[in-house]
Amino acid sequence: MEKTVEIGITSQGEEYLEAVCRIRERGIQVTATELAQSLNLAPPSVLGMLKRLEEQGMLSYSRQKGVLLTEKGELHAHNLRRRHRLAERLLTDLLGMPWERAHEVACRFEHIIDDEVEKYLLEALHYPHTCPHGNPIDTQDQEIYQPLTTLSVGQTGYLRRILDESSETLNYLHGMSLIPGAEVTVYAVAPSDGPLTVDVAGNRFAISRVMAGQLLVERK
């Protein structure tokens, strides 16, 4: 009887699973178009990878429902994101890498962390609860926070999570000292989906609605 050999998921496939989770956290349907934009890839390439991941039992895809992770895909994505965030902590806490660079570099580290390495990392890092950008190490144990866009003029909150971890966004936020734990007050909201003006440590900055939607806060 011929034995069937299961082909493991590639690092590129793992990046797709992570992208699905990132898009889903924004509260929108995960479509092939959204994935293409998130991964900076051509739509035909995305459709090809979705088909392969579907054959591996990681997800299902239809134009009507978009991309839905299977139980197997959810577990794989959960493990991957936990290891990604531990890698970010390793880079910032132990190696002193700037937090705005850690996400990009951790995208390479996460694929080589196995159960044994993860155990030692957790111990060396003293079992952190979040990555440097405030996102939970255990992705199944999340506090419920609200987007900055839900605050009205005059309301204050503490920044807890940054969903968009691109270097450009993190550099911009770092320049405003808008990091997890920072107190931020909405000073003004421009009409017609215009930017928010926020006060951080006595300084005022303009933030687009799109960026503000990626910043999760805890109301004061």
Main traits of this protein?
220 residues; alpha+beta; six-stranded antiparallel beta sheet; two-stranded antiparallel ribbon; 8 helices; 8 strands; 43% helix; globular; disordered N terminus
Report on the structure:
With 220 residues, the protein is an alpha+beta fold. 43% of the residues lie in helices and 18% in strands. The chain is built from 8 helices and 8 strands. The chain has helices spanning 11-25, 32-39, 43-55, 71-94, 99-109, 115-124, 167-175, 209-213; strands spanning 59-62, 66-69, 146-147, 156-162, 183-189, 196-200, 203-207, 215-219. Strand 6 (196-200) and strand 7 (203-207) form a beta hairpin. Helix 1 (11-25) crosses helix 2 (32-39). It is globular, with a radius of gyration of 19 Å. Residues 1-6 have low confidence and may be disordered.
Helical proportion? 40-55%
By secondary-structure content and strand pairing, the structural class works out as: alpha+beta
Poorly predicted segments: 1-6
Shape verdict: globular
Going across the major beta sheet, what is the strand order?
Answer: 3-8-4-5-6-7
Biggest sheet record? 6 strands, antiparallel
Strand runs, count: 8
Distance between the termini: 65 Å
* Oligomerization category of the chains in this entry: single chain
Mean pLDDT, rounded to whole units?
91
Q: Beta-sheet strand percentage?
A: 15-25%
State the order of secondary-structure elements, H for helix, E for strand: HHHEEHHHEEHEEEHE
| Count of runs of 4 or more consecutive helical residues | 8
* Radius of gyration over C-alpha positions, nearest whole angstrom: 19 Å
